[in-house]
Specification:
Distance between the termini: 55 Å
CATH class of the largest domain: Alpha Beta
Shape: globular
CATH topology of the largest domain: Aminopeptidase
Oligomer: single chain
Bound molecules: zinc ion
Largest sheet: 8 strands, mixed
Helix content: 25-40%
Radius of gyration: 21 Å
Length: 371
């Protein structure tokens, strides 16, 4: 049912790659799809940039998705472009989706944040904490679209940091999902159960591709979050979090897994397979923990003399926008006994070959001079 990897590469939108994705990067794509999709400006950001929505399909089930509500979270934007290419590919299975569903997508809700590569908008407001107050134009645009479109399902599309692992394992949380709570007690209403079932469906497919690399996000209730607010209105909502895949800081692999998740969800909705799923399986997906560093230096006392024997140093990258590209600048996050932590890149200073490679990493070595 879902495209194989070679097939995926044939529909992947290759004009948009990497982490820095702004309005200008998707203009060509939006122009290209105009014959098959309806593209419309639905409002303007704080700094006056257009916020566009794509409408595709003619079916009775309405699905609303939005990406880059946090400007520096572009992986899901790339995935929705792939999704549109797939839906426009005239395959029998995509024609079925388009007959059953009408899909509205905002690819970049926060174009100012995207341009500045920040989470927040141009007024430094986190739009995912503005769902009740709706103090920002971007928040009002999303809410107006929600009220007008009256979706049956909402997909809230984000990136998560590299720090997350799955449960008690050393597997990175390449994808995380959340069926947001709609009340303080995190009760399971029919609406929330519906969100959980969609997550169960996507998890089953993704486990075949990335076994053990799917996590469940913390479900603490916060009415200021958009997903929680939409869930409160009785609209099943799913939060997608694109995370780290080994050696994939551009998040091109994760993009593909998000695409697969989106397609799975739409196929389950279009043939109403959702009703047959068991929502309680949602809780079998392990919760995320924050146990990863980008760089973990074990037995760091060898090169950092003020540390105790066996201590480690954990570094995280600060993603920095420089001349239109994202630099990953290492910064020390923790030092000490870091048992139970993992590194996407690990160097054990007791191993000569590791030490040699580490010593060539001049930016890191410079930071270690504080010890
Ligand atoms: Zn986010």
């Amino acid at each position: 049912m879902l495209p194989e990897q070679s097939e995926y590469l044939s529909i992947k939108e290759n004009s948009v790659l990497g982490r820095y994705v702004v309005n200008g990067n998707i203009d060509g794509f939006l122009e290209k799809i105009k014959g098959k999709c309806d593209v419309k400006i639905v409002g303007r950001s704080v700094l006056g940039l257009p916020i566009r929505r794509i409408l595709v399909g003619t079916g009775p089930t309405r699905v609303l998705m939005w990406s880059q509500m946090h400007g520096n979270e572009s992986t899901t934007t790339k995935a929705v472009l792939d999704l549109i290419n797939y839906l426009n590919s005239d395959r029998p299975e995509t024609l079925t989706v388009l007959k059953s569903c009408t899909i509205t997508i905002i690819p970049i809700l926060n174009p100012d944040g995207a341009a500045a590569y920040t989470r927040v908008n141009a007024n430094s407001v986190d739009l995912n904490r503005d769902a009740q107050q709706r103090s920002q134009p971007e928040s009002r645009i999303l809410r107006n679209l929600f009220d007008e479109f009256q979706p049956d399902y909402c997909f809230n599309l984000h990136d998560q940091r590299t720090i997350y692992n799955v449960g008690d394992t050393s597997k990175p949380a390449t994808i995380s999902f959340l069926a947001p709570a709609h009340d303080e007690s995190r009760s399971i209403s029919p609406t929330r159960a519906e969100s959980m079932k969609l997550v169960v469906a996507m998890n089953k497919i993704l486990q075949k591709e990335i076994p053990g690399q799917v996590g469940r996000y913390d479900d603490a209730f916060n009415a200021n979050c958009v997903g929680d607010t939409f869930q409160m209105t009785g609209t099943p909502t799913v939060l997608f979090e694109a995370g780290h895949y080994p050696d994939d800081y551009d998040r091109e692999r994760t993009r593909e897994y998000i695409f697969q998740g989106l397609m799975t969800a739409l196929h389950f909705i279009d043939v109403d397979k959702v009703s047959k799923l068991n929502p309680s399986e949602y809780f079998l997906i392990p919760e995320n923990q924050k146990r990863y560093f980008d760089i973990l230096i074990q037995n760091a006392h060898i090169i950092a003399p003020s540390l105790k024997k066996g201590d480690a140093i954990g570094l995280l990258y600060v993603e920095t926008l420089t001349n239109g590209t994202i630099d990953f600048v290492p910064k020390i996050d923790k030092a000490g006994s870091l048992d139970g932590y993992y590194g996407h890149n690990t160097y054990n200073c007791l191993i000569d070959s590791d030490l040699k490679v580490l010593k060539r990493h001049s930016a890191v070595i410079k930071l270690l001079s504080v010890f």
